[in-house]
Amino acid sequence: MPVNSFEDYPMSWKPDKKQLVPPLYRSVASLLEYDILNGFLAPNTKLPPQRELADYLDINLSTVTRAFKICEVKGLIYAVTGRGTFVTPNIKNAIFMADSDENKNYIEMGIIKPLDSINSFVAQAIKSIAAKDYLENLLDYRHPLGMPYHRMAAKKWMQRFNMDVPIENIAITSGGQNSFSLILMALFHPGDKIAVDMYTYPNFIELAKILNIQLIPIEGDELGMKPERLDAVCRTNSLQGIYLSPSCNNPTAVTMNMNRRKEIAEVINKYGLILIEDDVYSFLAPNGYFPISHFVPEKFVYILSIAKSLSSGIRVAFIAYANQFVEKITYGIFNLNVKTSALNAEIITELINTGAAEQIIKKKREVSQERNRVYQKYFQFEHPSENPISFFRWLPLHKEWQLNQFEHVALTRGIHVYHSHRFLVKKDETPQFIRISLTSPKDSDELEKGLCILKRFLLES
């Protein structure tokens, strides 16, 4: 069928033929994945028949079939015999793992992979636990807040980062994102307002949307959120909370210094805000830094996920909270079932108590330091408050792009990076950036190759 006959033909998905590059099946798969993950194809959308799509793109049917298979394996689409192929429900415009090493034709520098090649320490801990005679005791539903000695390990790990609370104020959950869900549902209500940085962790943005909680972006500078701007907003708005990640803000890589932390704490105390402190990157902060939670002892919830520091596959986060929140958070844990398995908590406890956890973060810091040296061969840090061993960098763009346009063009060049609009709370005219993951390429050589491609792409555009 001539391609021109499709000009006015209704199709649920019409990828841009000009963006196809060899190998074609991977290119079609990338276009489809991109449009699904970024919300251009709604859940349960019926895709065009494969033969029809092949005719439209003027390519072989087998090419489309291979492309659909890649997306089906990733869980992005599903086929119903006799009815067709559909977009999987509940695919959100958030950052999560949807890729596979198989058939990948680009260098990953978007999603932050936390150097899981160091998982040999974790594997050894699992082998050690498997040989213990109390293994069966780790396989039941007891202790929703976490076994007492697991919570003692959590307390010890928090003390490592200058956060000291009684074990009665500590719980263990199944990862950082489930902790966010717990906190927002247990301590906040639909319509509540939470202050956040202008550029914020996208999964927190999406979760707030689901729960009908309004995020209020606060301007920042090279040290992070400005306390005077937070104070001004609090004077004119009824805010209930604030979300911050001061050790290494995602996505800007800013580490908030101690003076700024204390200034922000003063505003929190002044207006009685509930602090949600996400300290997933605490292990990258300078020694001697105290969490903001330390300075707001009556109004904090402190989240210390181990996803980036120890192992992304063991879904564990330690949370600590002020006395006034104990009852509500306990109630939430019992009813939302965000408890992690005792087996997972045992693995992390083993790492902490044997000293392996310290070895892991030492190794990760060393690797990340080397990756940052590679980065500085091509680009410079923007200001001194950027964490020098951050897993990611925040690079200004000097030309305006649409999010989907920039990310897809970069993908056709062979690199996967994220545009700043993914992280923007309020979609308005702001400076544009790229977040570049330094830890996702398999080694420094692949990172250097990706940065070289990116440098050339930015110079040409």
From TrEMBL:
Classification via PROSITE patterns: HTH_GNTR
Domain HTH gntR-type residue range list: 22-90
Needed co-factor(s): pyridoxal 5'-phosphate
Record carries keyword Magnesium: no
Molecular function terms from GO: DNA binding; DNA-binding transcription factor activity; pyridoxal phosphate binding; transaminase activity
KW Transcription (keyword) present: yes
Signal peptide positions (record): none
Keyword entries, A-Z: Aminotransferase, DNA-binding, Pyridoxal phosphate, Transcription, Transcription regulation, Transferase
A Pfam family of this chain: Aminotran_1_2
Transmembrane segments: none
Matching PANTHER family: HTH-TYPE TRANSCRIPTIONAL REGULATORY PROTEIN GABR
Family the UniProt entry places it in: In the C-terminal section; belongs to the class-I pyridoxal-phosphate-dependent aminotransferase family.
Name of the protein: PLP-dependent aminotransferase family protein
Source organism per UniProt: Neobacillus cucumis
